[in-house]
Design goal:
single chain; 143 residues; alpha+beta; CBS-domain; three-stranded mixed β-sheet; 48% helix; CBS_dom; CBS domain-containing protein
């Protein structure tokens, strides 16, 4: 299955933030939208980084509560790994597992068009395995 197909199963809205926003603003955005990471963009939806809950927790651990007044640019992961709509879900899952990250922006050229999470690709993989198991059961039952 392609990333494009995975994106059709997600809400169209993409939550983004600017690099100059504060960590406190980013934290509120994550909480309000019930998401684990936010894509950091510049003009024309060009991806410049990603900020995850994990990045914020590391910042709090290292710098204390004062980190909340710092800029997103100070904690974001950059450069960020991205994928395209044509990439396979299995390829994205492999890259996420190897890189130990849970969110990947989807781009076309330099423009952000979506975000895929490890939950999206794992859910897809489980559905595929269940379909294969069902087909195998049907084959055995009729064979």
């Amino acid at each position: 299955m392609s990333v494009a197909t995975l994106l059709t199963k997600k809400p169209a809205q993409i939550v983004t933030i600017g690099a100059q926003n504060t960590i406190a603003e980013a934290s509120k955005l994550l909480t309000d939208n019930k998401i684990g990471a936010v894509v950091v963009v510049e003009a024309a939806d060009r991806v410049v980084g990603i900020l995850s809950e994990r990045d914020i927790v590391r910042g709090l651990s290292a710098r204390g509560a004062s980190v909340l007044t710092q800029r997103v640019a100070d904690l974001m992961t950059a450069p960020v790994q991205t994928c395209t709509r044509s990439e396979s879900a299995d390829s994205v899952m492999r890259r996420m597992s190897e890189g130990r990250f849970r969110h990947m922006p989807v781009v076309e050229g330099t423009k952000l068009v979506g975000v895929i999470s490890i939950g999206d690709v794992v859910k897809n993989r489980i559905a595929t395995l269940e379909q294969e198991a069902g087909a195998m059961r049907d084959y055995i039952m009729t064979g």
